[in-house]
C-alpha cells in the first residue's frame, strides 16, 4: 500500500512539473506574440517619421491607434536611437523583444532592452 502511495506522489510531482513547464512556454509565446502584433504600427511610425527617434507608447496610441491594456502598458518598454529601436514586453517571468525592424524576436527570462 505504501508503495502505491509513493508511486502516486511521484506521478503527481511529474504532472505538476509538466504543467509548470507548459505555463512558462505559454507565457514565453504570449510575450513574443505581443511584439509581433506591434510590428505594423512600429513600421508605420518609422516610415512616417523617417526613423524611430521619439517613438513612445503614447505616440503609438495617439497617432497610430495602438491600444494597450493597463497590464501591457505597464510592462512595455521602448528605447530608440537615430537608426533603430528596442521594444520589449514582459509576460510573467518572460521578456520578449525586438531590437530593430529586421531583427528577430528574442525571448529571455532577463530583460533584453537596456
List keywords for this structure.
114 residues; alpha+beta; 4-stranded antiparallel β-sheet; 4 strands; 54% helix
Description:
The chain has a four-stranded antiparallel β-sheet with strand order 1-2-3-4. The model has no long low-confidence stretch (mean pLDDT 83). A hairpin with a 2-residue loop joins strand 1 and strand 2 (84-91). The protein has one domain. The protein is an alpha+beta fold and 114 residues long. It has helices at 2-48, 57-64, 70-75; strands spanning 77-81, 84-91, 94-98, 105-108. The chain has three helices and four strands.
Radius of gyration: 19 Å
Number of helices: 3
User: What would the principal axes of the Cα set say about the shape?
Assistant: elongated
Give helix % range: 40-55%
Strand content: 15-25%
Structural class: alpha+beta
pLDDT averaged over residues: 83
Largest sheet: 4 strands, antiparallel
How far the N terminus sits from the C terminus, by CA atoms, comes to 56 Å
**Strand numbers in spatial order across the main sheet:** 1-2-3-4
Low-confidence stretches: none
Amino acid at each position: 500500500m505504501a508503495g502505491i502511495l509513493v508511486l502516486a506522489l511521484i506521478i503527481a510531482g511529474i504532472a505538476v512539473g509538466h504543467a509548470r513547464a507548459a505555463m512558462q512556454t505559454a507565457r514565453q509565446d504570449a510575450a513574443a506574440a505581443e511584439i509581433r502584433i506591434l510590428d505594423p504600427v512600429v513600421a508605420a511610425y518609422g516610415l512616417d517619421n523617417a526613423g524611430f527617434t521619439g517613438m513612445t507608447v503614447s505616440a503609438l496610441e495617439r497617432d497610430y491607434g495602438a491600444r494597450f491594456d493597463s497590464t501591457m502598458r505597464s510592462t512595455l518598454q521602448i528605447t530608440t536611437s537615430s537608426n533603430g529601436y528596442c521594444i520589449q514586453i514582459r509576460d510573467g517571468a518572460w521578456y520578449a523583444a525586438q531590437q530593430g525592424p529586421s531583427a528577430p524576436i528574442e525571448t529571455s527570462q532577463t530583460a533584453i532592452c537596456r
